[in-house]
Amino acid sequence: FCFIMELCGATRLGYFGRSQFYIALKLVAVAQSGFPLRVESINTVKDLPLPRFVASKNEQESRHAASYSSDSENQGSYSGVIPPPPGRGQVKKGSISHDTVQPRTTADPQEPASPVVSPQQSPPTSPHTWRKHNRHPSGGNSERPLAGPGPFWSPFGEAQSGGSAGDAVWSGHSPPPPQENWVSFADTPPTSTLLTMHPASAQDQTTVRTVASATTANEIRRQSSSYDDPWKITDEQRQYYVNQFKTIQPDLNGFIPGSAAKEFFTKSKLPILELSHIWELSDFDKDGALTLDEFCAAFHLVVARKNGYDLPEKLPESLMPKLIDLEDSADVGDQPGEVGYSGSPAEAPPSKSPSMPSLNQTWPELNQSSEQWETFSERSSSSQTLTQFDSNIAPADPDTAIVHPVPIRMTPSKIHMQEMELKRTGSDHTNPTSPLLVKPSDLSEENKINSSVKFASGNTVADGYSSSDSFTSDPEQIGSNVTRQRSHSGTSPDNTAPPPPPPRPQPSHSRSSSLDMNRTFTVTTGQQQAGVVAHPPAVPPRPQPSQAPGPVVHRPVDADGLITHTSTSPQQIPEQPNFADFSQFEVFAASNVNEEQDDEAEKHPEVLLVEKASDPASSLRVAKTDSKIEEKTATSAPANVSKGTTPLAPPPKPVRRRLKSEDELRPEVDEHTQKTGVLAAVLASQPSIPRSIGKDKKAIQASIRRNKETNTVLARLNSELQQQLKDVLEERISLEVQLEQLRPFSHL
Amino acid sequence: MAVCVAVIAKENYPLYIRSAPTENELKFHYMVHTSLDVVDEKISAMGKALVDQRELYLGLLYPTEDYKVYGYVTNSKVKFVMVVDSSNTALRDNEIRSMFRKLHNSYTDVMCNPFYNPGDRIQSRWALFAVHALFLQGLPC
């Protein structure tokens, strides 16, 4: 027995904490069943019969007895003790002590009783098992163990008279009493009654309550055997509670309304004030209804209270509704504040793994999960919403990613947005227009800035090449070129796409869609023009002047057209191609290397197309070519890097070429696969761009894309400049107004 | 920083009243009682408009040389009265509002308890725990 005590850590603590007690009980059971006494044995020996304790009043014990009954012989006396527990409780303190004495002396008489009892007590067997376990070992020690349990019991709730010396230790134990209290809760009827009631209780709530309390007490006790956690709910108890819950509310995931719960708990005959307090403790989410977890916690508290435990001021951890954790509620019983269940302390496992480890696990999980579902729903929903929200941003990328890898944000967010849009549009058009998408994406990058403009105008573009729209719409996307190229170069089909800022892209997105329509490629020039026209009015989010978008629109339009045409072309990353196009263009311009284009063309045949398409648009932006040129160079640089093509030629060249190519593209668009035409045009326009068009759709696409990018950038720039112009005009107007206002004063 | 907090039922009897321990509680109880007239006056004045537009926060009911009394009324005519020390100039209106809001939340929590009968004295040491925080910091945590 000393060994047991040691094992359960009692010696460590110097007293029998509840968990210790449980452990000890288990060990007793283990010993009694003849298993080697080891901590592991507790866990392993699931079926350890409940230790036979002399003083068993607890249901636990009876349960043990039940499980035990098979064993019973030696344990008979103990089992006899066990059953009583439920009956015991405070009320029966005397009896308990009595019992304890009895077991010591007369194990046998009780034994028969306990076996009888135990079978009846089904649910809250866990506590019993505990007890039984304890009993067992003690059984081994004959009287002593009994004495042990005896004292054990006595502290439990009653001053068990003293068992043997060993008892002293036990008696020092305070937590056990609560358990016994529970037992007593259920307790009033004699143990047997209890036991009998127990099965019956299932049906009868009131009885159940008592029984439940007993069982719960046992369970609680048992569970609390986990280290220092007096509030833990044992499996049996939990089972019991759940059954009770079901009687009120069949849906385990549902709620028990306050009125029903009130009625139910009023049956426990606790004072209203205490019930109120219990409610406050257990209604964790303060919704006036009890989830399964909350109900179990409340029930548990009721049981505890009935057994004499004082209600805590805060909800013990083990009773906290498991919002998160699915594990056992082996908590440290600390602050109620913790929502999740902290894992039971190390000791808990051994203690918890008594004869019913599986039960513990399944039940708590079940319960917890069910309750967690309930209680956690809010959390999960919130968290989910959060996550979803986050992922919402991401999707933009994926789309675009598919379309084109979001280029790095080299420049202001606008570019980023454009990219996003690119991506988006890319995704939109994944199908046929993947290449287009790619391009649009590229363009859209630029156009994002312009996209605002595009939106308005772009609405016509039904293609959904929002990306393209965004391209064009963003005149400011000077950087977009760069980024796009980057993306092209760097990126691979689909991917990278840095998540562009969600909000912005949207406006541009719409624009881009409008652009897409433009892009439908019916009218290269016309579209572009239209696009341009459309853009100016559309400058919604972006105060960018329409001009920028205009050209940009053109570009995307073309690009779109090209893209659509080039849909046949493989698309690597829809967006990317656009970038690629630009980069390609630039590359072309810079390096006059067709091969490079080819490489990119592979990727961006459509880009080329797009670019080509954009070129015409960019023609409008000749003025901006400079900026574009810069962009191009910038972009080309990345493009180069990515593609490994030769460094781009001076920006102007590509720009110009793009313009030319755009022009060329337009007419050619309809030709060939159009892509080829575009590409050809583009290529043709670009000195460095060999006429690989016919051969390489991709190259065309790439060039188109590039053009688009350029367009976008130019459009962006355009819009920016226009915006500045507007601002300046406004200032002027305001100043004039002030002047006029001042004049009268001067007159006065 | 509130020195006294009171929850008054619709029929103008107190459901919960607590003062900062150091003060003379009776004086505060009296102040709260007399402030009820002001509350009623304000309610009736506002009641002319649609009830929904009624502002829950009544604001400063009346100041004395030492204390200021603030009022708050719920839609069910349950009144919250708070007495704060005048020397606490740091307490701004917004803070008072937030204090009342928290008080209102605590009150609803109490209401949610099925074991609480509306109209009973609020004896929940748990639910009105936040009220104590009002005293300590002026703002429940």
TrEMBL record, chain A:
InterPro entries assigned: EF-hand-dom_pair, EF_Hand_1_Ca_BS, EF_hand_dom, EH_dom
Coiled-coil regions listed: 707-738
Enumerate the Gene3D superfamilies for this protein: EF-hand
Compositional bias (Pro residues) spans? 496-506, 537-548
Q: Could you tell me which residues belong to the region Disordered? A: 57-181, 329-385, 422-445, 458-583, 609-676
Pfam families reported for this sequence: EH
Repeat found in the keyword field:
yes
PROSITE patterns of this UniProt entry?
A: EF_HAND_1, EF_HAND_2, EH
Q: What is this protein identified as? A: RALBP1 associated Eps domain containing 1
Q: Which residues form the EH domain?
A: 237-321
GO BP term (any one): endocytosis
Stretches of Low complexity bias are at 109-120, 527-536
Which source organism? Prolemur simus (Greater bamboo lemur)
From TrEMBL, chain B:
The domain of life is Eukaryota
Q: Name one GO cellular component term.
A: endoplasmic reticulum
- Please give the chief subcellular localization of this protein: cytoplasm
| Family matches, as InterPro entries | Longin-like_dom_sf, Sedlin, TRAPPC2L
Q: Name one Pfam family in it.
A: Sedlin_N
Question: Which SUPFAM superfamilies does the record cross-reference, listed alphabetically?
Answer: SNARE-like (SSF64356)
Q: Tell me one GO biological process term.
A: endoplasmic reticulum to Golgi vesicle-mediated transport
Cellular localisation: Cytoplasm, Perinuclear region; Endoplasmic reticulum; Golgi apparatus
Swiss-Prot/TrEMBL keywords:
Cytoplasm, Endoplasmic reticulum, ER-Golgi transport, Golgi apparatus, Transport
Family from the record: Belongs to the TRAPP small subunits family. Sedlin subfamily.
Protein name per UniProt = Trafficking protein particle complex subunit 2-like protein
* Organism encoding this protein: Prolemur simus (Greater bamboo lemur)
Name the lineage: Eukaryota, Metazoa, Chordata, Craniata, Vertebrata
